[in-house]
Amino acid sequence: MTIQTAIWRISIEQQCGGELDADQPLQEAARLLGNGAVVAFPTETVYGLGADARNSEAVARIFAAKGRPSDNPLIVHIADKQQLEELVLPYPALAVRLMDAFWPGPLTIVLPVQAGKLSKLVTAGLDTVGIRIPDHPAALSLIRQAGCPVAAPSANRSGKPSPTTAEHVKADLAGRIDGIVDCGSTGVGLESTVVELVTPHTIRILRPGGITEEQIRLVAGDAFIESALTVSEPNCEQNCDEAPRSPGMKYAHYAPDGQMQLVDGTAANVAVYINKAVAAARGNGQRTAVLAFDEHLDQFDADVSASLGSIQRLEQGANRLYAALRYFDQEGVEQIWSECCVRSGIGEALMNRMMKAAGNNKIYV
Ligand code: TXA
Ligand code: MG
Predict the structure, then answer these.
(1) I want to staple 161 with a disulfide (CB 3.0 to 4.6 A). Which of 49, 126, 301, 325 is the partner?
(2) Running along the chain, 365 residues long, what does each successive block of 10 average in pLDDT?
């Protein structure tokens, strides 16, 4: 069934003070959201697809619109800490440290959920819920005015790159959702970091993202920090009755239409390898693309290319990656090669998403 998708354009210049609360299109979006509608909105990371987290009918429409597997739980977005206390059970002091340091901001904290407060679809049957306060004035105003906790995964069709503009949301979901709050491009460009406290003194990073491990370490004191990517999890691809600890990790994500390969090594070796591969693919009549940092972009000769910004400023790559992958799809690219970056700072999240986009296809030259 196709439905009419409203577009509400919000000027970000109005963001200071309470002025945004008086914005009529935003008021309309919030009224609908509070009444069970499914509305896409910007956050500081990527656009989210929101619904009242207490309303199962509304939440079910998120899963349907995205084509998302029902065992992958949703992040709940709140506007302030008062809203938090109504949803979760008591949590350790370490969680408070993280909230005080990083909220509002791109850190999702998995906490024990109070029974009966959220739709079971949101938590996918887990006894925990991932929660964050987004650092975006339109998102905060929308959540406040809707008057409910807002469940919101990224506003893309499942398996596609997350949307960093309202146009990306429209391309994936127009006709499937009630509306889109359009506030231009998002800032961080990759999703939030998801953490879980596996003990009162142990932080497990389930998904690297906008808040870096180094930033977390600075406020974690003597707590242990471990990465879910290096912890062995039961293999839940087959015959898994229970939802795994980090359900999102088992699904293919962020895939462009073309085949993608990451190429690691010295800049000179990478350029030689990629240019040979491009020439061979062209010989087979395939359309090619290269994703590279500004410092090296002119060394490549593919049909289409996109910049990840400066290799000295990896936040630029984070901001541009998803738009670049969508651009390659639009251009009908069949083979993509990409440079790699260091796995520190935001480079950890950037490499994580590029590895997923490439289906872990990486070569060292
Ligand atoms: O930046 C973001 O986090 C964006 C914006 C819209 O806030 N949202 C987002 O949501 O990326 P989504 O649904 O695409 O990713 C949520 C991730 C999934 O990997 C999911 O498995 C994990 O968070 N997650 C959610 N609740 C969880 C829980 N209770 N325990 C473990 N992992 C959880
Ligand atoms: Mg997502």
Answers:
(1) 325
(2) 94 66 95 98 98 98 95 96 97 98 98 97 96 97 98 96 97 98 97 98 98 97 87 35 52 83 97 98 97 97 97 98 98 98 97 96 98
Residue with tokens 């998904």: 207
The reported pTM is: 0.94
- Measuring from each residue's beta carbon to the nearest atom of ligand 1, which residues come in under 6 Å? 43, 45-46, 48, 72-75, 106, 108, 110, 123, 126, 128-130, 134, 152-154, 191-192, 194, 206-207, 245-248
> Are 156 and 163 in contact, with CB atoms under 8 Å apart?
yes
- What spacing in Å lies between the alpha carbon of 365 and ligand 2's midpoint? 31
Beta partners for 132?
Answer: 77
C-alpha–C-alpha distance, residues 259 and 363, integer Å: 14
Find out whether the peptide bond into 42 is cis, omega within 30 degrees of 0: no
